[in-house]
Amino acid sequence: MPAPIRVVLLATALAGVSAPARAHAQGSPYIRLDHPLLPLLEHLIARGDVEDPSPMMRPFRRSDAARVLAAADTSDRSPQAAVLRRLRRAFEDSAGNRWILEGRAGAQAFTHARRELLHPAGPDGARPYTELSGSMTLANLVLATRPTVEPRLVDDPDWLGRRDVEVAGRLAEAYISAQFKYAQLFYGQMDRNWGPVGLPGIPLSNYGYERQGVAIEVGTSNIRLTALATDLQDQTDSLGQLVHRYYFVHRLQLRLSRSLVIAPWEGMIVAGPGRNFETRYRNPLSFGYLANTIGLGDRSNVLLGLDLQWRALGRTTLLAQFALDDFWYDDRDQNRDRWALTVGAQGPLGNTLAWQALYTQVSSLALRAFNPADNFTDGGVGVGRNFSDQDQLTLRATLPLRTRWLLAPELTVLRQGEGQINDPYPPQDANGVRTAPALFIGVVERTYRAALGISGRTGPLDLAASAGFHHVVNSEHVEGQSADRFEGRLQATLGLSWQGALQ
Question: Is residue 454 in a domain?
């Protein structure tokens, strides 16, 4: 991000702290996506017991969680009421300026170093893990950081950092945020996922770890505009030129009724030798496909999308996310249509459980382009999805245990073609037509997964684990070759925390 933009946003944030009399709410840290109690809250949201504070947008703030938990009914003696009360105590912010410090240490064990279990890669092993997290709230200003020491990273093919060290680490969080009644400003890095919970979002996800950038959020509960601008890693083109790359994504959320939320969004890759992140590409109110791709004839790659969340039948919620990649309204025979989509539903199951069903599909050529610099990747890893040419069906149930743990049995079927997000774009034939199939290039590998996950916190112990049996047909895209294997990962840590008031 250009330095002047950073300076302006930071200055704006700091200026807001000097005028607390005009503020309507105190700042609040974001709940990280790997928080051990977040799955319990997502379980209540899936059941319809608790309102979703940020439909298809994660993370949200502690104050957002506390608000929806306070609005839910905790008067009865049901298991859900006990979970509600515990989560409300856990996420409720103390009034006034305050600080929180937490240190954790433990271990990670894994059958493959990659975090994503359906496309295993890297060696197995067990490694130590430590982290130190801290946050400070000063009126409307929040500062947070969470450095980790995580030796597993050097074996993860999706890690973009150094691999020539024995002890690797990362900044899982490091941000400054100014928060007011109708606006939030953010500078720094943290995990984000824009899409249905349970899958990486199409426009933006934490598949490739935390993303740094400048973000703004403006609006009310009925209409809300969110935008994020971030740098991507440079590439070298076929002529040896250094190509600068940037990504801008923005989303307009509209609550049309108490039960229906829709949100059009747009993601744009800006790339070229000697190129800057021009101002017109960072305008949250601009429709880039119209203003740039069509209006100026700029060939930047644009991803157009729409999110939908509808509480349709009682407490059953329908979810959908649709995307068109670099849509051509003319000369359509010269380019294969590219798309991605997710549809799903979730709701209560009996008095205690929740259920979720998700189907997703990414076409064979989606998320890549004629020019590799325009791919929706960062260092070769997807900024949202990391795999094209696939579809996946997942059925999941969740069950809380003693208000501290969440069990999550899962059944998944994945069909993966040979098309990859970093493959060269296929050429045209003699008639100027691209003949690659719209879905499933080559031999399709099918993975059947039956798994059980557990997550939660009790006392000083945090635990997150998932283990499953995989039956793979046409393994490694070899016709008739099958494989059976166990895939799993575990992270367990012990920690201490301290907090206090700032005078």
Answer: no
Paired tokens of 408: 């999550």
Give the burial string for 445-458 (b: 16+ CB within 10 Å, else e): bebebebebbbbbe
- Which range of residues forms the domain containing residue 153? 3-92+126-387
CATH (domain of 145): 2.40.160
Phi-psi region for residue 68, left (φ > 0), alpha (ψ -120 to 50) or beta?
A: alpha
User: With contact defined as beta carbons under 8 Å apart, do 191 and 215 qualify?
Assistant: no
pLDDT digits (tens, 9 = 90+) for 133-182: 999 999 999 999 999 999 999 999 999 998 999 889 999 999 999 999 99
**Positive or negative CA dihedral for 212, 218, 224, 227?**
negative
First-last CA distance in the chain: 35
Neighbours of 263 (CB within 10 A): 22
- In the chain, how many domains are there? 1
Strand partners for 442 = none
Tell me, yes or no, whether 481 lies in a domain. Answer: no
Please say if the pLDDT value at position 6 is more than 70. no
Rounded alpha-carbon distances, angstroms, from residue 111 to 167, 331, 415, 487: 20, 47, 21, 6
Prior bond of 203 cis (ω within 30°) = no
Structure tokens of 407? Answer: 């069990």
393 lies in some domain: no
Distance CA 72, CA 321 (A): 27
